Amino acid sequence: MSQLLDTEISRGLRMDIGLSMADYRVLAPLSEAPDHRLRMQDLASRAHWEKSRLSHQVRRMESRRLVRREECATDARGAFAIITPEGLQAVRKAAPLHVARVRRLLVDVLSREQLQALADVCETVVEAPAER
Fold it and tell me: For the HTH marR-type domain, which residue ranges apply (predicted)?
């Protein structure tokens, strides 16, 4: 189910806006962050990615002018990812389409009881003290 939803949502983002799911996973938190910037390590954590994966993704997105990277003045090892006006415009177009697609593929096909059961299961899995 997870793979099917991810594939369909990714396909929709690419067709509607020209963004990949990876692009969206970077742009969405940046669009909501104060000053539209996050430390790279915080962004990697939010995406559940290794720092190297995020670094490669940000580099690809920089070439498309969706984000830019800025060194941290107080920490020579740190850097910020910052959404550009083009990136902000793209995610603002993508977000309502993304929400509508998730609703159509998941929310609308489940009953209220099924949605509650799914929410309960998801909460249990996320909060489980699994080895991470």
Answer: 1-127
